User: Which sequence fits this backbone?
């Protein structure tokens, strides 16, 4: 069987799973969004007894925010309901709950799917990543900036704040009117909700409940997005060699999580299945993975092995793998030593 035939068969095999089920989707709303609202309410109520009880509620709520985001994510793909209108309504509501403007993220994420692992089309919906040569061509200041950006404390510490307060609040320059208006609508809705809660409970309580929740959920979200595309032998190619199916199955990982974390993250660990067929709703991703043998050959990452990916900072197209700054620094030293040796030999010959 040729590669083209294998690709065609794989996409045909996964197609039956790309159908939403109304009862399952509605049930998922009730077991996700309702508990989230109850936990938030409990956080405000329990503050009168102990701030630590409120913090515990906020930590618990962050898991449900991640799960709510998965519903939002499915709506942007049109996979949560058959009805476009239903997807748009639920998508906007879950977008407000998670602080994401629906239309803006929908377009950017669609671009991400169409260009994932394509070295010539990076920059929209991705975590910024340089190749080794691109990094070496930059100035020392630019290298320092990139190192700072890829530092875990910045990416997972400041990243959630930047995402919620800046990235999600402003439109891209090329955004059309519908997208711009939707972002304005989301921002206004969030402003009204936040101001109301602050006036009723005070800004300190608001930050204790919603601040902690969104910070933890944001950090978890960035981590999930990072680990699903950043592992040693992840697939990346330039446009002329890039292949959509390979980008999905080889450029997206299967993040094998304990069942409770798999539930909280809405099965998004089956990311290779999602990238292959974005119309598969989150509650059918595992079934597709287990039913289609080629999908089971995707790179599997566990909680333990995923920590190793923190050290991967640059992609080496020649070796087709991610490398660390330490490896590249060693390469730079070897090159500089070689240049000095050649210069010394040339000087000796000229004498």
Assistant:
């Amino acid at each position: 069987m040729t590669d083209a035939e294998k690709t065609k068969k794989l996409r045909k095999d996964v197609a039956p799973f790309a159908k939403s089920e109304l009862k399952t989707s509605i049930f998922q709303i009730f077991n996700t969004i309702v508990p989230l609202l109850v936990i938030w309410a409990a956080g405000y109520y329990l503050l009168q007894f102990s701030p630590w009880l409120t913090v515990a509620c906020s930590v618990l709520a962050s898991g449900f925010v991640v799960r709510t985001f998965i519903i939002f994510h499915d709506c942007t793909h049109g996979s949560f309901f058959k009805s476009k209108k239903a997807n748009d309504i639920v998508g906007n509501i879950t977008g407000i709950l998670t602080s994401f403007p629906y239309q803006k993220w929908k377009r950017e994420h669609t671009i991400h799917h169409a260009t994932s692992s394509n070295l010539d089309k990076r920059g929209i919906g991705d975590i910024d990543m340089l190749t080794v040569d691109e990094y070496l061509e930059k100035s020392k200041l630019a290298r320092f900036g990139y190192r700072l950006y890829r530092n875990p404390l910045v990416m997972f510490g400041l990243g959630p704040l930047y995402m919620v307060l800046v990235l999600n609040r402003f439109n891209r320059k090329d955004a059309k009117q519908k997208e711009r208006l939707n972002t304005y609508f989301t921002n206004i809705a969030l402003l009204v909700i936040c101001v109301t809660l602050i006036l009723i409970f005070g800004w300190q309580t608001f930050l204790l409940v919603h601040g902690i929740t969104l910070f933890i959920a944001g950090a978890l979200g960035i981590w999930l997005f990072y680990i699903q595309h950043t592992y040693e032998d992840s697939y990346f190619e330039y446009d002329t060699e890039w292949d959509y199916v390979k980008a999905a199955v080889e450029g997206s990982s299967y993040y094998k999580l304990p069942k409770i974390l798999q539930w909280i993250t809405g099965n998004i660990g089956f990311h290779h299945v999602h990238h292959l067929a974005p119309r598969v709703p989150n509650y059918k991703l595992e079934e597709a993975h287990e039913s289609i043998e080629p999908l089971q050959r995707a790179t599997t990452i566990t909680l333990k092995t995923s920590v190793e990916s923190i050290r991967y900072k640059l992609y080496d197209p020649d070796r087709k793998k991610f490398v660390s700054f330490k490896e590249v620094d060693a390469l730079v030293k070897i090159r500089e030593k070689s240049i000095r040796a050649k210069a010394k030999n040339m000087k000796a010959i000229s004498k």
